[in-house]
Amino acid sequence: MRHWLFKSEPSTWSWDQQTAKGSDGEEWDGVRNYQARNFMREMEVGDLGFFYHSQKDKEIVGIVEICTGAHPDSTTDDDRWECVDIKAVRPLTRPVTLEDIKADPRLADMVLVKNSRLSVQPVTPEQWVLILQLAGDA
User: Fold this and answer.
1) Quick one: which of 1, 128, 133, 11 has its CA closest to 63?
2) Which of 48, 90, 92, 126 has the highest CB neighbour count under 10 A?
3) Domain, as residue range, for 81
4) CA nearest 7: which of 73, 48, 44, 60?
């Protein structure tokens, strides 16, 4: 199993909206970055990801699960763009802020720190465990 991070502006798509979708989940659509799209192509059903609120809050708030593999993005007729569906698993005990992440030298190589604009990104197993520890979930 691999781990990922999905970024969304809460005013566009929030953790509360994601959890309201229940076990059916929701398409992670609208991504128009080749690197992010390629990461989604690598995802497998059952992989887990962090749900990150970007913009104002800048914090990881929950865990999601990939519930479908890559498929055409329904928001465009352009066949270059694909997405996956994700469903909420659970909120973190305590949100982990970007400030928390940047303050921990063990997370200095995290994509979120090095390429903060990328909306879909991988998380290493070590980073996954450290984030869960910071959240009080490990």
Assistant:
1) 128
2) 92
3) 3-134
4) 60
Judged against a pLDDT cut of 80, whether residue 26 lies above it is answered with yes
Strand intervals (E) in the chain? 3-8, 26-27, 48-53, 59-72, 82-97, 120-123
Q: pLDDT band at 110, cuts 50/70/90? A: very high
> Which amino acid is present at 115?
N
pLDDT attached to residue 116: 77
Single-letter residue type at 101: I
pLDDT in tens, 69-105: 999 999 999 999 999 999 999 999 999 999 999 999 9
pTM: 0.96
Domain count of the fold of the chain? 1
List beta partners, residue 51: 6, 62
For residues 115 and 5, give the distance between their C-alpha atoms in angstroms, rounded to a whole number.
12
CATH code for position 128 = 3.10.590.10
CB of 59 closer than 8 Å to CB of 53: yes
38: number of Cβ within 10 Å: 12
- Helix (H) or strand (E) run with residue 36 in it: helix 34-42
What dihedral do alpha carbons 94, 113, 52, 45 form, nearest 10°?
A: -110
